[in-house]
Amino acid sequence: MRTANVRSIVVWTLVALIGATGWSVLALSRGEDVSAAWMVAAALGTYAIAYRFYAKFIARKVLRVDGTRATPAERLDNGIDFHPTDRRVLLGHHFAAIAGAGPLVGPVLAAQMGYLPGTIWIIAGVVFAGAVQDMVVLFFSTRRDGRSLGQMAREEIGPFGGAAALIAAFAIMIILLGVLALVIVNALAASPWGTFSIGMTIPIALLMGFYLRVLRPGRIAEVSLIGVALLLLALVAGRWVAESSWAAAFTLAPSTLVVWLVAYGFVASILPVWMLLAPRDYLSTFMKIGTIALLALGVVIALPTLKMDAVTDFAKHGNGPVFAGSLFPFVFITIACGALSGFHALISSGTTPKMIQKETQVRMIGYGSMLMESSVAIMALLAASIIDPGLYFAMNAPAGVIGTTVQNASQVVGSWGYQISPGALAQAAQRVEESSLLSRTGGAPTLAVGVSEIFSKVTGGSLRAFWYHFAIMFEALFILTALDAGTRVGRFMLQDMLGNVFRPFKNVSWKPGLAITSAIVCALWGYFLWVGVHEPLGGINQLFPIFGISNQLLAAVALAVCTTLLVKSGRLKWAWITGIPLAWDATVTLTASWQKVFSSDPRVGFFKQRQVFQNAIDSGKVLPPAKTMDDMHTVVTNSTVDGVLTAVLAVLIVVVIADAARVCIRHVRRPALSTLSESPYVESKLTAPAGLFPTRTEKEEERRAAVGTAAPGD
Amino acid sequence: MRPSVLLRRAIKGVRWYVRELTDESAYDRYVTHVRKDHPDAAVPSRREFERMRTDRQEADPRQGFRCC
Q1: What is the separation of C-alpha B40 from the centre of its chain, rounded to a whole number of angstroms?
Q2: Which band of pLDDT confidence, cut at 50, 70 and 90, is reported for residue A1?
Q3: What top-level branch of life does the organism fall under (chain B) (predicted)?
Q4: Mind spelling out the 3-state secondary structure of A413-451?
Q5: pTM over 0.90
Q6: Which tens digit of pLDDT belongs to each residue from A474-533?
Q7: Strand A34-35 and strand A305-306: pairing?
Q8: What is the DSSP annotation of A395-415?
């Protein structure tokens, strides 16, 4: 029995106390100013405890990670995609791959229910579900030469469950792209500064691509520096453009932006990778990591005060303007990526397992990266909670609800109990040099206002508008990259599916097939984008729940695969490690799907909504927020599509879970019938520490290994 | 340790990390790999290698995919 030394007992008791104090203050203070420091303390304290104890327990006792077993990176090393990568570098790679717009947008929208429900779910969710999923998927994929989630589903559950998982993944990808594009449109509409600087990222990326292809191949660091410098120049120049006679050319209506974005998605996805995608990706990764680091620093230095209520009335009554529905299940659906994200399973299987040096590192890479992502979500929630709640609701409620004038908005938001004068609303827009901030739904503009608030506390208020547009640029940059990369992945899936019907599609470099499938994928997400922009009830309000549901359903697939694998690999008694998160996630998500399909509240249930509007059409009436009969028909069509889609997704996932349950039960009854496709054991010759800092034994091991390799020479 | 030594070591560390994280070191790594495991094979030039790398990404876009 190992005994803990006094020092570590003291240290961990202190960490626990800090976390507990943070939680107590957040939970108990009502109606008084709460510093963001407590939120930070609660988060960091909990992460540290979870990483040190729960993650270690899972790695050792449940997964039984084996440091002597060679990973695919070591066995199949080809110097390109399979190669043992230093754990600190891989942590950066993996984090940059999983962190995107999701954890920034979801928590901002969830702030409508107050900061407390969001904080609790982001932290508890990541500790018990999100980080566990990422780590377990990473572990099992590492044991299978870096198989993707879809392949594992097919091999371990069966062709039926596998096919359902594949179709679900494709549908989810389309919804994701549509919603992300909608976030961009809402952030850039009628904003010449933003539109100009985002538009400039295209020539900058082309230039970088040319530089890397022709002038100096492979010099990524220097070209990224050039790119970032040009990017900042474009950002500053955006203000000049907005103040010049060119402003009109860059002041675009939402429907114009839709056309531009879909065209961009199509063209970018058929251009060679080196031209646009690769350089864009360097740029957005650079900006992403830099801005997140700056934001963390800004939060710690400025330690702003939370202005949002801990729990708002909307949480109790489920009638919020940002998204409809009660706290359970919709707060969990809305936060999505920051706490538990199905998409991470696609990174944890596939890319990262081919680079990991040691099985013992799955805790640091899988669990650790997800804790970092969760802290990004906490920062986003924090940024949304430090701005005036009146401004928050004016920015996030659809125009159909609060109208288009500051007077009207001030009055409506005031009727919800959040007082803000028309003057204050106008001034908030003026301070970030935007014409209006009303109904800037989608989360990005709210986050940008919060970020500019935090940064200008550090740098002074004169830079506020710059920081606002900096934050918009930072989000828009990687959303545009995601549109391009996501269209390619969607196309790849579609080529594979169509290839079963018409053979040439299987050949991924067959040009006509490439163009056709790219066009189909763009048309599909473009449809949701178009609908989102023209939806009288508010695009984000209607579509974001579907996005959240689909992401959480993908997580259910990943957790079902993990649970099946735990059962089949003789870890039945530990199956609850992913089984309980699966049960929770399935309950939350299927409840949400159920309500979205069957609820009798027209704000929540799509078919009820359809019925209400259809009845009004039949009797020749126009219901607000619709203004014309055309609007009425739009609502009817959209709610039908949304309702059917939600139902289909839910059914697909039920199929996957049921199939997984069948395989598990069969394994428990007759283990001889199941097969486990794990790669055979090969002894590892590498030595590498498991955690960020090597322990004393690991240092000694490394020293011995270094001597060992030097010895044959003499 | 003298501050100048510490500083030099810190700069070296940052440079190493940036090169690894951006995958600028991919070519060097590949050359080492080819020399060690396939001594008879020809070593591609940096230009050829970088082209091969983007072509691979082109063929399977799931490589290096980013999340939401």
Answers
A1: 22
A2: low
A3: Bacteria
A4: HHHCCCCCCHHHHHHHHHHCCCCCCCCCCCCHHHHHHHH
A5: yes
A6: 999 989 999 999 999 999 999 988 988 899 998 888 899 999 999 999 999 999 999 999
A7: antiparallel
A8: HHS-HHHH-SSHHHHHHHHHH
DSSP letter at A580 equals H
> Burial level of B61, CB count in 10 A (0-12/13-18/19+)?
buried
Q: How many CB atoms lie within 10 A of CB A501?
A: 7
Q: Cα dihedral angle (A502, A504, A505, A511), rounded to 10 degrees?
A: -140
> Looking at the complex, does the CB of residue B40 fall below 8 Å from at least one CB of chain A?
no
HSE-CB of A137 using CA atoms within 13 angstroms: 37
What value of ipTM does the predicted structure carry?
0.95
- Contact B14/A at CB under 8 A: no
Listed in order, strand segments (DSSP E) in A248-358 are 305-306
CB within 8 Å: A281 and B68:
no
- CA-based R_g, chain B, Å: 17
Enter the DSSP assignment of A217: T
Separation CA A325–CA A339 (nearest Å)? 19
Contact call for residues A466 and A456 (beta carbons, < 8 A): no
Whether the per-residue pLDDT at A712 is higher than 50: the answer is no
Closest CA to A440 of A475, A401, A396, A471: A396
* Distance from C-alpha of A287 to C-alpha of A280, rounded to nearest angstrom: 10
Question: Each residue of A136-165: b (16+ CB within 10 Å) or e?
Answer: bbbbbbbbbbbbbbbbbbbbbbbeebbbbb
Measured distance CA(A17)–CA(A24) in Å, rounded: 10
* Angstrom distance (rounded) from CA A430 to CA A542: 29
CB-CB under 8 Å, B19 with A221: yes
Radius of gyration (C-alpha) of chain A in whole angstroms: 25
Closest CA to A294 of A498, A463, A64: A463
Write out pLDDT tens, residues A374-384. Answer: 999 999 999 99
A83 touches B at CB < 8 Å: yes
Question: Residues 174 to 193 of A: which have CB under 8 A from any B CB?
Answer: 176, 180
CB contact under 8 A, B58 and A100: no
Does residue A687 sit in helix, strand or coil? coil
In a 13 Å sphere around the CA of B30, the CA atoms on its Cβ side amount to 20
